[in-house]
Design a protein that fits this description.
A 4-stranded antiparallel β-sheet has the order 1-2-4-3. The chain has one domain: NADH Oxidase, CATH 3.40.109. It has 6 helices and 4 strands, in the order ααβααβαβαβ. Helix 2 packs across helix 5. Helices cover about 35% and strands about 10% of the residues. By secondary structure, it is α+β, with helices and mostly antiparallel strands. The structure holds flavin mononucleotide (FMN). The site of flavin mononucleotide has 11 residues, from helix 4.
Length: about 220
């Protein structure tokens, strides 16, 4: 799917929201960020509880603090990641972009921490609810996808990242995030260095069954 206009229709847009990890450091106007986050909060949530909140990092000191820990998290989790010998693979291309993101995290104009209020799933009985409940992922992810779509619609690049969970406790302390919220996703946002392009996915037909699993 290729986008032909500056004001793409929904089906053009949805097929062109690739993870954009190479971003310019240029300032993003507040009005654009407002528009994008406003799209985020149009998402559905159980009983319309709207269990999301955003912490936007835009001061250099805050972003550098985050970037330092993000880099360490990636390096500690992907020691010796096997990319050698796969230089032409899509994995190697994606890994190069992840490395770029890791190196440039502090330079991106905006890092948006999308937080979700903690909420026990119904299937966990009350007497088994020990410790902190998980954040309400089910509601936060539609909000995140709206944000990614809105970024694409206004010409901003964005990428969904989750590595912050390695240092989430520190993140809470540094930015005064209350305990009853979890940080679900961090989205670096900025103007793209490269071009937008189509995503690569299996057709829905390949993963759709009728009247029972495996029946196409
Ligand atoms: C639950 C989830 C977690 C993800 N975590 C990360 C992440 O930590 N870092 C990252 O660069 N991308 C992350 N992504 C983005 C995926 O890597 C990306 O969407 C996928 O590889 C497809 O690439 P594309 O969106 O460019 O087509 C995540 C996506 C999802 C849905």
């Amino acid at each position: 799917m290729t986008i032909s206009t500056d004001n793409p229709g929904f089906f053009d847009l949805v097929g062109n929201v690739r993870a954009m990890r190479r971003l310019k450091p240029d300032h993003v106007p507040q009005a654009l960020l407002d528009k994008v986050l406003e799209a985020g909060v149009q998402a559905p949530s159980g009983m319309n509880t709207q269990p999301w909140a955003f912490v936007v990092l835009r001061e250099r000191a805050a972003k550098s603090w985050f970037a330092e820990r993000y880099q360490a998290a990636i390096d500690s989790r992907f020691v010796g990641a096997d990319v050698a010998g796969k230089t032409n693979s899509s994995f190697a291309r994606q890994w190069a972009a992840v490395e770029y993101q890791k190196e440039h995290m502090a330079e991106y104009p905006l890092l948006v921490l999308v937080c979700g209020k903690r909420d026990w799933p119904f299937k966990v009985p009350k007497d088994q609810r020990v410790g902190l409940a998980p954040p309400n992922y089910g509601a936060v992810y539609p909000c995140v996808q709206n944000i990614l779509l809105a970024c694409r619609a206004v010409g901003l690049g964005a990428a969904l990242t989750t590595m912050h969970q390695v240092f989430e406790e520190e993140l809470h302390a540094r930015f005064s995030i209350p305990e009853d919220y979890g940080v679900v996703v961090t989205i670096p946002i900025g103007y793209p260095l490269g071009k937008f392009g189509p995503v690569s996915r299996k057709p829905a037909r390949e993963v759709t069954y009728y009247n029972g699993w495996g029946k196409q």
